[in-house]
Amino acid sequence: MIEDESWLLESLAQFLEVSGFEVHMSTTGKSGLYKLGVLPIDLIVCDVNLPDLNGCEIFETVKGNDSTSKIPFIFITAYSRYDEVYSPYFERADSILFKPFSPFDLVKEINKF
After folding, report:
1. So what's the pLDDT on residue 103?
2. Which residues of 13-87 form beta strands (DSSP E)?
3. Any idea what DSSP says for residue 96?
4. CA 31, CA 34: separation in Å to the nearest integer?
5. Per residue in 48-95, pLDDT tens?
6. Distance from chain centroid for Cα 40
7. Which of 10, 18, 79, 113 could form a disulfide with 72 if both were Cys (CB 3.0 to 4.6 A apart)?
8. Peptide bond preceding 100: is omega within 30 degrees of 0, i.e. cis?
């Protein structure tokens, strides 16, 4: 999970761990991509707005690499409308959740994969 808001990252990760998932956390896109290269990752949950690489850049990197292109990718975003800024990326993602969302909604989306 890549999310720059530490409180949100930690609370969602804790909920997911209690729900039976193993979670690797990153607060920047660069650290998230690094972990993708060294850890077994089954699914990516990524915020759109990050302080270094944005979620769309991470998405392009993941989907553009043969070894990671099949990993499901879930965007999370504070944008209030689907077509606000990043709709071409949202349309290509495996899923998207708009903040605020329930941790139960996140588990529901993850369980689709």
Report:
1. 94
2. 44-47, 73-77
3. E
4. 5
5. 989 899 888 999 999 999 999 999 999 998 876 655 555 677 778 899
6. 15
7. 113
8. yes
